[in-house]
Amino acid sequence: MTLDEQINQALEVLRRGGIILYPTDTVWGIGCDATNPEAVGKIYALKKSENKKSMLVLLDQIEKVSLYIQKVPDVAWQLYEVADKPLTLILPEARGVAANLIPEEGTLGIRIADHEFCKRLIRKLRKPLVSTSANITGQPTPATFSEISKEVVDGVDLVIDPQFDEHPTHKASSILMVGIDGEIKIIRA
């Protein structure tokens, strides 16, 4: 199967509210259309968690961040520009995504994907893609496809072919929380 065929297959699943297991630039993720609350709910059910802080969204371009955050703090643009490894920013005043994706403090974790499959899928979907580690809550985060539990693999609507894995870091991204005032707090280095 070609990359384009796999992307089209994933688009069909995402557009009908399904969830996928897919490679990213860090670790394998479970994902869905970030604007579809039913699909987001399916991921919480699969992970056996309602922890909204464990879910982030992937975008294909830095410029799109302002579509999902009311007023992006200036320092956030600078952090995305200088990041030399995968970086998730937790930003204030989320908007434009499913309400059940946003924790009570109103934030949203956003990472700019540096992975061909992810970027092309997000570009065609024209929406942010949910990304959360491919594990049941409380279990270790799998670094590679072979470490993902059968329960997770069987619980998604589509598993992307591991041939499209590229060169992942095999570890979760760094996470910084950026306040409205530009204050930065390190969540995970």
Describe this structure as you would to a colleague.
- By secondary structure, this protein is an alpha/beta fold.
- Helix content is 26%, strand content 20%.
- A nine-stranded mixed β-sheet has the order 7-1-2-6-3-5-4-8-9, sandwiched between helices.
- Strand 8 and strand 9 form a beta hairpin.
- Helix 1 packs across helix 4.
- The radius of gyration is 15 Å and the shape is globular.
- The N and C termini lie far apart (37 Å).
- The relative contact order is 0.25.
- The mean pLDDT is 95.
Which helices and strands, and how do they pair?
Layout: H1 3-15, E1 20-22, E2 29-31, H2 37-47, E3 56-59, H3 74-82, E4 87-91, E5 108-112, H4 116-125, E6 129-133, H5 150-155, E7 158-159, E8 174-178, E9 184-188
Parallel strand pairs: 1-7, 3-5, 4-8
Antiparallel strand pairs: 1-2, 2-6, 3-6, 4-5, 8-9
In short:
The chain is of the alpha/beta class. Helix content is 26%, strand content 20%.
Taking pLDDT < 50 over at least 5 consecutive residues as the criterion, the unreliable ranges are none
Number of strands: 9
Strand order across the largest sheet: 7-1-2-6-3-5-4-8-9
Alpha carbon gyration radius: 15 Å
Order of helices and strands: HEEHEHEEHEHEEE
